[in-house]
Design brief:
Distance between the termini: 56 Å
Strand order of the largest sheet: 2-3-1-4
Strand content: 5-15%
Order of helices and strands: HHEHHEEHEHHH
Largest sheet: 4 strands, antiparallel
Shape: elongated
Helix content: 55-70%
Number of strands: 4
Number of helices: 8
C-alpha cells in the first residue's frame, strides 16, 4: 500500500469516527472548566500611572529665551527622560525597592506585612513608548492590592527624586482604584486547550487503531497488498442459510 493510500485510509478512518472525536473534545472542555473553577486562585489588580519628566537645575532658559530655544530644551528633556526611564523601571524591580515600599506601607497603615509580599506582585511597563509608565499590583486580596498601589503613589516619586540627583522625577497621572471583581481566570483558554488535547488523544487512538488493523476488508485491498488477482468471492449466507434449510426439510417430510 503506497503512502497516499495510507494517508487516505487514515483520513477516512478519522472522519468516520468524528462522533468519538467530538465526544472527547467535549469531555476535555468540561475537564478544563472543572479544573479552572476548582484550582484557579482568583486575583485582584490595582494599577497606578506615573508621568516621568526631566528637571535641570542648570537650565539656561529664562524669560528672554526664544520659542525655538524653549522647544529645543523641552525636546532634549523628553528624550533624556525616555532614555533613562528603562533604568528607573529596573530599579523598581529590585529587592531594595520592594523593601522600601513595604516599609512605607507598614508605616502608613500601621501593619506588619513581610518584605517578600511584593515578590511577583508588581508589574511595571512603559505605555506606548511614552514617558508614562504603569505599575500594576496583583494579589489575592483586593484590599491589599489597593493599599500597595496607593502607597506606590507616594513612594515612587520619592525614590525617583533620590536617584540620579533627581534629574528624572515622576508625578501621578492616574490614581489607583480598588478592584471590585477578580481578574479573568481564563475559562475560555483553558477549556479550549483541554478540548484540543481531547481531540488529539482521540485522533491518535483512531490512527493507531487503523494502522494496527491488519484485516483485509475488500478485494481491491487484497489485490494491492499481495499482488494476486481475485478469481471470485463467496457471498455471506448466514442470514438466509437457516431459512433455506427449514424449507428443504419441510419439503422432504411432505414426500
Amino acid at each position: 500500500m503506497n503512502i497516499d493510500a495510507n494517508v487516505q485510509k487514515i483520513l477516512f478512518a478519522v472522519l468516520r469516527r468524528w462522533k468519538l472525536i467530538v465526544i472527547f473534545a467535549i469531555i476535555g472542555a468540561l475537564i478544563g472548566y472543572f479544573y479552572t473553577s476548582q484550582y484557579t486562585t482568583l486575583t485582584y489588580s490595582s494599577d497606578v500611572k506615573f508621568l516621568a519628566y526631566a528637571t535641570d537645575g542648570n537650565d539656561d532658559i529664562d524669560e528672554n529665551s526664544t520659542v525655538n530655544e524653549i522647544r529645543s530644551s523641552n525636546t532634549s528633556k523628553m528624550n533624556y527622560t525616555r532614555s533613562m526611564l528603562p533604568t528607573y523601571i529596573t530599579i523598581m524591580q529590585t529587592n531594595e525597592f520592594n523593601s522600601r515600599v513595604v516599609n512605607d506601607l507598614n508605616e502608613t497603615y500601621n501593619s506588619n506585612y513581610p518584605a517578600n509580599i511584593l515578590n511577583g506582585a508588581t508589574e511595571v511597563e512603559i505605555l506606548n513608548d511614552t514617558a508614562i509608565f504603569k505599575i500594576t499590583v496583583t494579589t489575592t486580596d483586593p484590599d491589599l492590592s489597593y493599599k500597595i498601589a496607593r502607597q506606590l503613589e507616594t513612594t515612587v516619586p520619592k525614590i525617583m527624586k533620590e536617584k540620579n540627583q533627581g534629574l528624572v522625577r515622576a508625578s501621578v497621572e492616574d490614581r489607583a482604584v480598588k478592584a471590585t471583581t477578580a481578574g479573568n481566570p481564563g475559562y475560555a483558554k483553558k477549556m479550549l486547550f483541554c478540548a484540543l488535547i481531547g481531540i488529539a488523544l482521540s485522533a491518535a487512538y483512531v490512527i493507531l487503531r487503523t494502522l494496527l488493523d491488519i484485516r483485509i476488508k475488500s478485494s481491491d485491498e487484497l489485490t494491492e497488498k499481495y499482488n494476486i488477482p481475485v478469481l471470485g468471492s463467496i457471498p455471506n449466507f448466514e442470514g438466509r442459510g437457516v431459512q433455506t434449510a427449514k424449507g428443504v426439510e419441510g419439503y422432504v417430510k411432505k414426500d
